[in-house]
Design goal:
Rossmann fold; alpha/beta; 340 residues; 13% strand; Arc Repressor Mutant, subunit A; 9-stranded mixed beta sheet
Amino acid sequence: MNQSRTVDPQNMLRRGQLSGPLFWKGADLPAQRLRVAVVGSRRATQQQLEHAFAFGRELAELGVVVVTGGALGVDTHALQGALAATGEVRVAPLAVVPASVDTPFPKENLSLFQEIVARGGSLCSKIAADDHHCRGRFHARNDLLVQLVDAVIAVCADRPSGTLHCATSAWRRKVPVFAVPWSPDVPQSAGSQALLFAGARALWPGVALREAMGLLQRDPRAFLQRADELPLWPAQGAASTTNAQQTFDAVGNAWPCYAPDAPASGLSPVDPPGCDAGLVARLRVELRLAGEHGLTVEELAATTQTDRTAVATTLLNWSLHGGLKRVAGSWYALASASRL
């Protein structure tokens, strides 16, 4: 690869400051281009990896610099997607590595890092060439990544995870955060659901991505209405506890949450996909009676005589598909209850 060099951080960062130099390899970042971080789990499912690749390719074809931490899994597929971009407007990605740019980590991605630099992209790090990689530097890498970008897309995450740390770091610095709304039964989905509850915007590849990038270019403040911090995670529960149950328990009663806009008119007769139709019907009856005030997970479990985990899973899936809204923390109401 090309020789590494030191650069003035203030010529590269979007926000904040760094003490000391920034170590760089490859081309300088085009200052006028949007930069978007694509982050997620190393243990992502095949569909999640396909989303990461699609995000990387589509962002690069929109002229956006794709930024990742260079890790295996989602990071790798986003970088590969960016390098696979076609068309007249495409830009090479940036990998922010938790090691020296001369000996980037992980070693499994060495050929990918070489291709990035050869194709006009770049690597960067706060770690000097004579310093050795250590595990404790992943969070510092995430903080640097956030300072370099205009937005963060969380493809998938469990809880706790480096992706959630990255999102928290982004929100502290007023960087918009997006998340893919996976169904609760999908692995590595609990962290994504928590991000949505805490105020991240739902996002998919395709039209939604193009529209979001257009708005981000015009008015990034439109994506910053959210909670100040992520909720604190409780101790890990029983092994049988589901991702959905962990997410509901983690969010707690007092945290503002993401909720899709209510339907244009009336109550949707369509059951959320992947849910027990009988349970949805019973929940709908109780929520209709409760009106705008809504009910908690515990109250709905009691009135429908259903296991709390099953109720929590159904409510979460239903919320992500636009049929419910959350009111007063952990209370749930039909999305159009205010018009009944």
